[in-house]
Amino acid sequence: MIKIVTILGARPQFIKASILSKLFKSSSDFKELIVHTGQHYDFTMSQIFFQELKIPKPHFNLGVQSKLHGAMTAKMLIKIEKLLIKIRPDFTIVYGDTNSTLAGALASRKLNIPVIHIEAGLRSFNPNMPEEVNRILTDHSSTYLFTPSKLASFQLLKENFHKDNIFNVGDTMLDVYLNHKPQIKKISKKKFKDLGKYILVTIHRAENTMSEEILKNIYLNLELLSQNYKIIFPMHPRTEKILRNLKLYNYYKSTFNLIKPIGYIETMSLLEEASLLITDSGGMQKESFYCKVPCLTVRNQTEWPETVQSGWNRKTKIKNKLIYKNALKSISSKGKKTKPYGSGNASLLIMKKIRYLYNKVKKYENSV
Ligand code: UD1
Questions:
Q1: Which residue has its alpha carbon closest to ligand 1 atom 30?
Q2: 151 vs 95: CA distance, rounded Å
Q3: In this structure, how many other beta carbons lie within 10 angstroms of the beta carbon of residue 191?
Q4: 368 CA from centroid of ligand 1 (Å)
Q5: 33 to each of 22, 85, 257, 324, how far by Cα in Å?
Q6: Order of all β-strands in the sheet with 60-61
Q7: Which of 307, 309, 313 minimizes the C-alpha distance to 333?
Q8: Nearest CA to ligand 1 atom 2
Q9: pLDDT tens sequence across 116-160
Q10: How much is the pTM?
Q11: Backbone dihedral angles phi then psi of residue 129, each to the nearest 5 degrees
């Protein structure tokens, strides 16, 4: 039996893990124990994904909630270490670039338990982003690196990782999208086709929510766009809290369609019929690329340069009327058909590779 501990904690990780966790559950030679760090805890940020994507319930919830980044990561590290000592898995799996990812990788590495990083090799080259720090440190604490693209594998080679430990399997989020596509299309037609022209907006990154000036600029640009498009804005709790503190929330609320965070299927169904996505989310840049909806990324860098090269994604600075002008450009342009993120079977490839790695280690142990 191959014993796996999977560390999850934040919204995008529940989505990324959903197919692989189901595969583990249906395979008799795997036993996966899911550890939820508690980083995201609201129903709409956490449980909803377990329900709708039918992810096996976490075996442990560490209940570590928002603290300063260092304190949050440290608390997770202490609790994960204790669990790993008890469970002694064959592998620990971590996803993406959150504080939960880093804590899981570090705790496991210190105990000499092999770490598998899924979505390895991504870089924004912005050292001030907390996610960039997490991804670099996680990659360098990992034993096996599963990348979503050739470019990500190439980046790891440049950083001197050994090629035998890098596996380009594609993007697990493409697996999730293809798996739920029929349901997404159905709901989209039924609920959102007759909504008129609309732009879907999601903003939550620290770099875009820490400054009043930036939040005011985003408001003014969206207000201009709202003259011709409905603005539908499922708001991350971080953004809502900051807007309320700055007394800007009511401005946003009176002009745009602000809603609470929504689940995966509803988000994707809304995205399918949108004229444009405006976002600073990493995952949603790819999801719009998969649905062939243009995307305007309100950031100076992206970890997904292939989406920009294909013409479906455009980056914009937050300055004067740039978001407004670039949004109009994006709406009227279409991209090329490219497939940089695999063919939708990343989770299956990962499971097969873990089985292979396990057998290789066992064979070696038996031979010495
Ligand atoms: C985290 C990840 C980011 C990812 C994002 C997805 C890090 C460093 N960042 O950012 O990479 O894109 O998740 O959403 O790990 N909050 C709630 N309810 C919740 C969750 C959070 O109110 O269910 C509040 C917290 O109390 C905190 C704020 O939102 O005030 C930020 O949460 P946090 O987990 O620190 O980071 P995110 O911005 O969500």
A1: 238
A2: 18
A3: 13
A4: 47
A5: 12, 14, 39, 46
A6: 60-61, 30-36, 2-8, 91-95, 115-118, 144-147, 166-168
A7: 313
A8: 98
A9: 999 999 999 999 999 999 999 999 999 999 999 999 999 999 999
A10: 0.96
A11: -80, 130
Tens digit of pLDDT at every position of the chain (368 positions): 999 999 999 999 999 999 999 999 999 999 999 999 999 999 999 999 999 999 999 999 999 987 799 999 999 999 999 999 999 999 999 999 999 999 999 999 999 999 999 999 999 999 999 999 999 999 999 999 999 999 999 999 999 999 999 999 999 999 999 999 999 999 999 998 889 999 999 999 999 999 999 999 999 999 999 999 999 999 999 999 999 999 999 999 999 999 999 999 999 999 999 999 999 999 999 999 999 999 999 999 999 999 999 999 999 999 999 999 999 999 998 899 999 999 999 999 999 999 999 999 899 989 98
Among protein residues, the one with the nearest Cα to ligand 1's atom 11 is 98
Of 1, 26, 6, the residue nearest 16 (C-alpha): 6
Among 44, 95, 98, 287, which is best to mutate for testing ligand 1, by the most ligand atoms less than 8 A from CB? 98
Q: Which of 40, 180, 204, 236 is catalytic?
A: 204
Q: How far is CA 189 from the centre of its chain?
A: 26
Which protein residue has the closest C-alpha to ligand 1 atom 3?
98
Give the helix, strand, coil percentages of the chain, each rounded to 5.
50, 15, 35
User: Could you tell which of 15, 36, 40, 284 is best to mutate to test the pocket of ligand 1, judged by most ligand atoms within 8 Å of the CB?
Assistant: 40
Give the mutation target among 7, 14, 39 for probing the ligand 1 site: most ligand atoms within 8 A of CB: 39
**Torsion angle of C-alpha atoms 301, 305, 309, 311, degrees rounded to 10:** -70
Q: Which two tokens stand for residue 98?
A: 């959150």
Atom 19, ligand 1: which residue's CA is nearest?
Answer: 40
Count Cβ atoms below 10 Å from residue 364 Cβ, excluding itself. 9
Pocket of ligand 1 (CB under 6 A): 10-12, 39-42, 45, 66, 97-99, 130-131, 204, 236-238, 241
69 is annotated as an active-site residue: no
